[in-house]
Amino acid sequence: MHALRPFFHPRSLAIIGASSDPERIGGRPLRFLIESGFAGELYPVNTAGHAELQGRRAYRSVLEIAAPVDHAIVAVPIAAVVQAVADCARQGVRAVQVFTAGFAEAGAQGAALQRQLVEIARASGMRLIGPNSLGLINPAIGLFATFSTLLNGLRPGAGRIGLATQSGAFGSATYGAAALRSLGLSCAVATGNEADVDVAECIDYLAEDPDTRVICTALEACRNGDALRAALLKAADAGKPVVAMKIGRSELGAAAAATHTGGLAGNDAVYDAVLAECGAVRARSIDEMLDIAGFCDIAPRLPSGPRVGVVTGSGGIGVLMADEADELDLSLPPLPAPACSALQQILPFAVAANPFDTTGQVTSVAGGIERAIEVMLDQGGCDSVVAYLAHAGLSPQRFAPTEAALAALAARHPERPLMLVMLSTPEVAQRLAQAGIPVFADPSRAMRALGAAWELRRRRQALHRVPPLSAAAQAATPPLGAVATEAQAKARLARAGLPVPVERACASREAALAAAAEIGYPVVAKILSTEITHKTEVGGVMLNLGDATAVGAACDELLRRAAHHRPDARVEGVLIAPMVQGGVETIAGVVVDAVFGPMIMFGLGGIATELFRDVAFASAPLTKSRAERLIDSGRASQVLRGWRGAPPADREALADTLVKLSAFAAAHAHEIEAIDINPLLVREQGCICLDAVIAPRPPHPAPETERGTWHE
Amino acid sequence: MHALRPFFHPRSLAIIGASSDPERIGGRPLRFLIESGFAGELYPVNTAGHAELQGRRAYRSVLEIAAPVDHAIVAVPIAAVVQAVADCARQGVRAVQVFTAGFAEAGAQGAALQRQLVEIARASGMRLIGPNSLGLINPAIGLFATFSTLLNGLRPGAGRIGLATQSGAFGSATYGAAALRSLGLSCAVATGNEADVDVAECIDYLAEDPDTRVICTALEACRNGDALRAALLKAADAGKPVVAMKIGRSELGAAAAATHTGGLAGNDAVYDAVLAECGAVRARSIDEMLDIAGFCDIAPRLPSGPRVGVVTGSGGIGVLMADEADELDLSLPPLPAPACSALQQILPFAVAANPFDTTGQVTSVAGGIERAIEVMLDQGGCDSVVAYLAHAGLSPQRFAPTEAALAALAARHPERPLMLVMLSTPEVAQRLAQAGIPVFADPSRAMRALGAAWELRRRRQALHRVPPLSAAAQAATPPLGAVATEAQAKARLARAGLPVPVERACASREAALAAAAEIGYPVVAKILSTEITHKTEVGGVMLNLGDATAVGAACDELLRRAAHHRPDARVEGVLIAPMVQGGVETIAGVVVDAVFGPMIMFGLGGIATELFRDVAFASAPLTKSRAERLIDSGRASQVLRGWRGAPPADREALADTLVKLSAFAAAHAHEIEAIDINPLLVREQGCICLDAVIAPRPPHPAPETERGTWHE
User: Fold this and answer.
1) Residue B315: which of A180, A538, A710 has the nearest Cβ?
2) Distance from A571 to chain B by nearest Cα, in Å?
3) Of A184, A625, B245, B615, which has the most beta carbons under 10 Å away?
């Protein structure tokens, strides 16, 4: 049994701090549970010594309860919380929720109290949600173990969507919106301060929960990236779609200042990568999250491919849906010849195409729409079918025969989702949902939900499982060594198997001339300084030096420029390297994310990197195939295939280099903050790291701060 | 009086082809009008000679009606339509709608019939909507002059949103969705085949209509760009927001093949430019269109700036709204000190900031939320205020005092929109709407609607009024002359005042050497051929030639490459030009759009142009300030300001060049299909057109095809 199951399926529930006032925080859960007919034992607890509360026998302490208590709610003033939780542990409570606020979110004193709660819970094996949490619900059994005032106006129904959020307000806003559109929930939980149970563990529970088919979550301040990854992968393996929102932009850490890669890692790119790798999709609004979750909940399966067959009573709406498909990764393929002739036979006045516009005349053909949809499902060669039926669902009686026919069709094609787009009464939409047919009112939103469903399926087919970082393995890794200068960084990367040019660090003009002669002209000269990271900005790179005179002049000029632009910087000399030309300029990098560990970045180099942020991230270590997907995720792939007549670049070598970089990053994640390889030149044969920066981790990491979060 | 007013405010209405069967196309409008209590005279007309139809006295012909008929509907078989329309003209009908299909959309024969209808209408001054149109409505007077079956299930209410679409299905889908969310309509019209009245003219009507406050439209196949521009500008001048959807991607014309600019003009970029210049915003879905229109309809004014003050009962939702603002052009500025202390006094436990999180404890302070919102409105220094109130609106009685207080606040601050985000009953939302407070359920959608409202206001402040192209002025323009080669094109642009390098077209190796000597080394050599447009792709450009040997070798090599890659192409020789270096590589261009005339394109050059499509369009001729906005609309502006230590580029000279290009394009719009200036190098001082292509218009333009469209 999952450790969290007693929270959601308690046979008995105590409310410590229960109130006779049904409006108070300790009174509301009791009222909700009674009103909703929760079938388990209910034990109101209040030290005041009432004989009963809201009609139920009351207890002075949880210790007075003679029977086992699966789940306890603590809603007492902060001064009494530690005692209440300790009592629960003594009583043998298996799952405790602490609603009381004023813990880690309120400062150091609260944080200390919060640690006490965790210690008590850990010592007894009791699990703890909160403190500062809003509660949880399981509508199917009438378990409304929350003080959310939402339930005053609306009681969510039972269903198969599970919801895990940190913020109670976000959670109740979501399940309130779900209830208003008749989507049912298996359960919803808000984790508050996450002293013990976090959102990742709730997702892990939902992945196992047989009542849950689809998982919605909001990610705010995930602390354990490995746990989140594992939970998401477990859901994906269980065939359960996860739809996630990310609230708040990623903090830009110290890495942002030191490297491009660190700066580009902001803007949620790391979350995007992790969600994609673990089979989840991201929604940009609560409505969009519920659109996607609703589709996945109702349709018998996710579409097995991108091909959509559209049947529409309106050419204009058909074009609108085709426009939308074009922006998503969906296609509206031409129909096979047998499908065309079948459609032509049914509706001879319409043009057999995809979208298939039945035209207004379809009303003159009995069952014309159903038969067209049937052809599309049977012979259209598509992975899903969308039918636009205008406002047919607003006239339930007229629509009844079509409704019955479509329900039968959907039952016959469980492998191929059928979606309707129309205005309808809630009852019609509900009946169709029962039949496995999602109904959307807005054509664009319908296509976006379908696109996300296909994306979920596609991602599930290409999960990237990153082994958790083992402290033991890291301890066994030889130390990184000195990486402060470009030369040191490149030498280190070369030892890790990455291709770098032969080059010489030269402390004098004479050494530079000798190095150039040895390497062979033309050469490049670069300023060598641990303190100048962005050499281009100080004019610190001089290219294509054809002879000794040029090299000598370049040395003088580089030192002059460095002194001019960065008089503060200590300069070690110049770096002499062969002039490498041709190929595609890309950027690769590493950022060691505080939550998700080492992440590899790749994208088009030069001005494109920063102007267009056309880079993507992937979790290290990469497999070969993950490296290839990373290469393909941006515009660089277009250029690498051979841009404007150039020969194709060596993708094989590039993928190999990224895999090696990722292995290096994973092994040294504890020592590194970020790495830039910029440019990484990808040539017709091989690739080469023309410049590299390794930003080591400062020796004393900042202490982890305790989490505070929002109360409703 | 507006020419279209008789359609929407008829004192009398005839239905030709009226039926006693309330389900038939000729029976439905009659039923709808009777059911909705249309107060004008109703004249059912049917040649069968019924005494009455659906309880109203019937006529055999519209000519039998002794009284004036303002508006007539024609819903007879196609063979009888011309006669019916002719009868209307004779009767003195002022406005006729033809519902019958089978005209231009069905082929040449139908197109000929359609022309007859137009001739009859024009001759008598009668206006015509359709044929193949679904009808129009004006709910305030019970005018449901349509056969849309939507009205079987739903009757839209009266309000201030006007809707003009070509597709009837799109229109009824939109007003159906509006009705389901209790948004009222001033009128809605579907123009069908647009033989006479088109969407642009309907927008023109709505701009004048005193009952219309906000205009929604769907643009499908606009034929008259000048009329659309004029109508949109009229609406903007009348202070009426226009929210537009564009259905269907722009067709890529012949210009796409010949020039970059033509290719990049696809993907709706031209529509985006025209809508922005004329003060309208574009919506990406019906829901988004109604979100924006609903906000504009309900709020007393559009926000006068981007600054938003957010009051929220949930920190998480506050962050979500701030995230959304960050992606839009909205800002959440820090609060002025007096506002902070006022908030601190009201809710001492909360942190005075923007977003202002009242925390859960706000419920312990009587009127705490209202007072916080009041401070934000009075002293927050913001242009609009958004308050997140969770699900308060689901409990109307508890919410009543807050509702009253907020209504009073909104009345006191008509200049500053107040928006609520909460779940609520429809009644609560309706009452707040009456008080000028839009209520949204989804926080993200709320912010997007607010962002669009601010965009509408901002665009209204910077309208770009393009004079219609005058045929007389074009006739007076001296002919374009020969522009087939790069040299000719550049010479022509130089005469128009654009900066081009000195360069020589050389028919021989010797001429090339002489030209290089005259221009001064280093030089550039390019292949010279009318038939090779994309020189780079055949290796047709050789840079940085330092001496005569290099130039001679380059001539040989260019001819060899041209012969190798394009053995079909006739080569005139080579072009010798000075080697110009440094500066920012941009692209400028012209495409003469079939609907909107000459459009100027500008963006970052090189690989960025095609990989990232970071280009924008503007209508020619440009004013200086429009040129500056065009320059600022993409990433190029960042680079032009001085990228990575480079000096700022000469924006002044660039703007001047774009203005001159636009004047040239406008004068020669009838002779030109497209122009590429690629690269247009913008230097520290001045800018220079390094390469240019002018694609002339083919002498015999394809005949304009008649319009066919979709029936519902």
Assistant:
1) A710
2) 20
3) B615
Q: Cis check for the bond before A338: say yes or no (omega within 30 of 0).
A: no
Give pLDDT tens digits for B466-505.
987 777 777 788 888 888 888 899 999 999 999 999 988 8
Query: What is the distance in angstroms between the Cα of B409 and the nearest Cα belonging to chain A?
Result: 25
| Sole residue written with tokens 């969507």 | A161
**Hey, is the C-beta of B170 within 8 angstroms of any chain A C-beta?**
yes
Judged by CB atoms within 8 Å, which residues 269-328 of B form the interface with A? 284-288, 313-317, 319-320, 323, 326
The two three-digit tokens of residue B48, written as one number: 């069968």
pLDDT for residue A574 is more than 70: yes
Contact A394/B220, CB-based, under 8 Å? no
Phi–psi pair at B395, nearest 5 degrees: -120, 80
Question: What tens digit of pLDDT does each residue of B675-701 get?
Answer: 999 999 999 999 999 999 999 988 755
Nearest-neighbour CA in chain A from B386: distance (Å): 16
Model pLDDT, residue B705: 42
Question: How far off is chain A from B90, nearest CA to CA, in Å?
Answer: 31
Q: What are phi and psi of B643, to 5 degrees?
A: -100, 125
Residues of chain A positioned with their CB less than 8 A from the CB of B639: 607, 611
CB-based contact, A711 to chain B, within 8 Å: yes
How many CB atoms lie under 10 A from the CB of residue A506?
Answer: 23
Chain B segment 381-400 residues within 8 A of A by beta carbon are 390-391, 394-395, 398
CA quadruple B480, B485, B488, B491: dihedral positive or negative? positive
Using CA atoms, how far apart are residues B412 and B409, in angstroms rounded to an integer?
5
Asked if residue B435 lies in contact with residue B409, where contact means CB atoms within 8 angstroms, the answer is: no
Chain B residues touching residue A534 (CB < 8 angstroms): 644
Closest CA to B126 of B118, B114, B137: B118
Tell me which of A276-290, A560-574, B44-58 is least confident.
Answer: A560-574
- Whether A155 has its CB under 8 Å from any CB of chain B: the answer is no
Report, in angstroms and rounded to the nearest whole number, the Rg of chain B calculated over CA atoms.
31
The whole-angstrom separation of Cα A12 and Cα A451 is 43
Distance from CA of A340 to the nearest CA of B (A): 20
Dig out the tokens for A68 from the structure: 């086992």
Residues 6+ apart with CB under 8 A from B52: B44, B58
pTM: 0.93
Nearest residue to B702 via CA among B254, B257, B261: B254
| Chain pair A-B, CB pairs under 8 angstroms | 220
Average pLDDT over residues A211-231: 94
pLDDT at site A253: 42
Contacts of B321 (CB under 8 A, 6+ apart): B310, B312, B355, B386, B388, B421, B443, B444, B446, B447
Which run of H or E residues covers position A435?
Answer: none
Using an 8 Å Cβ cutoff, are A691 and A486 in contact? yes
Residues of B in contact with A314 (CB under 8 A): 167, 169-170, 173, 710, 712
The span from the CA of A51 to the CA of A60, in Å, is: 9
Write the ipTM.
Answer: 0.91
Alpha helix segments (H runs only) across A422-485: 426-434, 443-460, 471-476
Q: Are B243 and B215 in contact (CB under 8 A)?
A: yes
Q: HEC string of B663-703?
A: HHHHHCCCCEEEEEEEEEEECCCCEEECCEEEEECCCCCCC
In A, which residues are within 8 Å of B102 by CB distance? none
B164 touches chain A (CB under 8 A): no
The structure tokens listed for A499 are 């291709």
Q: What percent of chain B has pLDDT over 70?
A: 95
- Judge whether A499 and A314 are in contact, CB under 8 Å: no
